[in-house]
Amino acid sequence: MQVAFIGLGVMGYPMAGYLQKAGHDVTIYNRTTTRADSWCAEHGGNSAATPAAASSAADIVFVCVGNDDDVRSVILGDVGVLSSVPAGSIIVDHTTASAKVAREIAMLAAEKNVGFLDAPLSGGQAGAENGQLTIMVGGDEKTFATSEPVMDSYAKAITLIGPAGSGQLAKMVNQICIAGVVQGLSEGLHFAKRANLDVAKVIEAISKGAAQSWQMENRWETMTNNEFEFGFAVEWMRKDLGIALDEATENGSNLEMTKLVDGYYAEVQELGGNRWDTSSLIARLEKK
pTM of the prediction? Predict the structure, then answer.
């Protein structure tokens, strides 16, 4: 297919590479042109000066940027995707953003006979680099059926959750759950150290039972050693939790733990951990 990819951050850069490797004709756009040049040198493909130029002949346009404002800018702006993308094409937004902006863009895209999927990601930088992302999708079944085989080039699991906005809502659930798991693991490890237990033996024992989690398997040792340079940054997590808390205000759900953990991440930021990974919740406990 003719594919455009907008946004070459730590996720988008390898994802666009997998699309090119899969045989698609990829045109990329990135705000920082030096990064776009590096991608073209590594993967081939083409670079465009604007999102509109990248999308003008695309069958599918993938977007992976920072937040709602960035999504609106690259899709709805004067030189955005919707200003040039052909009728009958599809926009797939991989940004973690609000359900509100997903529904807004889906409606505006439909007016131009353009399909739209909100398709946030889980798996972090490692998942993107290894082509092993989990994708939660909102949109209609026909648009999903066309896009799924293309997304499969960088994914291990792709699930259509429901109509537009549902992918973003599912990602909020994902982040809510991660926040609680990481806080529980942080407290457990902190307790084990203060109790003078052999932490490695404790993890060997409990990781085979009901306490097991991806965070435990992959982060217990680095957390114990106060090493926090392994992926999804605290500032990004706070952005995502803020989206979830805003949505909770709208739908009336009670996110007591999520609100607490968001405040704990604010404390981590005060320790200088803005770019530490999310497992750094333990740092605020260890300093006390």
Answer: 0.95
